[in-house]
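Late entry, written up from scratch paper. The run itself happened at the end of the previous shift, but nothing got recorded in the book at the time, so transcribing now.
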Amino acid sequence: MNFLDAYVKIPVAQNHTRADLSPLMRQVVLDTETTGLEPAAGHRVIELGCVELVNRRPTANRFHRYINPEREVDRGALEVHGIENEFLATQPKFAEVAQEFLEFVKGAELVIHNAEFDVQFLNHELRRLPGVTQDVRECCGVLDTLILARRLHPGQRNSLDALAKRYSVDNSKRELHGALLDAQILAEIYLAMTGGQASLSLESDESGTVVTATTEQRLDRGGIDLVVQGATAEEQRAHEVLLAAMAKRGKPIWRELDQQAADAARAAEPAAAA
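Output as recorded:
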């Protein structure tokens, strides 16, 4: 199946389509971590991680914030991401980063694994604030890579870890979930799953800024001695017998081409000698 046939979006506002991203297609691979599983039960976003792709190439642009959820993290969620309440108490509240976040993602296509979960939490946060969009889909398209993966690999496990293994994406640093790390891993998976060759570095430079690199995989042909196997004399004789039989029905076109090439070579000899 061609990946375009499996291309799936969560519905977006009518005035925003994939064509709006052309000729410069900007995508933001996004992941969140939360205090629990249900925004309706009062759970909140505690981490936002975003990685930018422009025309399917990773850039150095990142958006990464830890957020004070103004409540305790559930024990089950803590076991998944390991982000402690004491640390979160020192971080900005969502209201303090909302505008910066919306500016970063505005006009982009969000690439999210199990998008409904993250979009639900983002909208829950946005609806708590006055003067901002109430639905992130009003300013962004949304592509759900989980739905895409299920269509490409029906009946198989399509978790982030399973896809990383399937597409040979290094997720060895993923001892716990983390929004930025998971967004980086998903970016690599998405590019591989949809035919890309790019790779994102999961390393940081000395300043702590996450950097990115596009790499090409090249086959090392050093030491390889290619053998050209020619036809044997017996095979050549058999070939000429077959051509002679075919020629009884008319001169083969390749014979005419051979003759034309020979004539052209003879005509060029006087010019070369001069």
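Residues 81 and 175 are 9 Å apart (CA to CA).
(Scratch paper discarded after transcription.)
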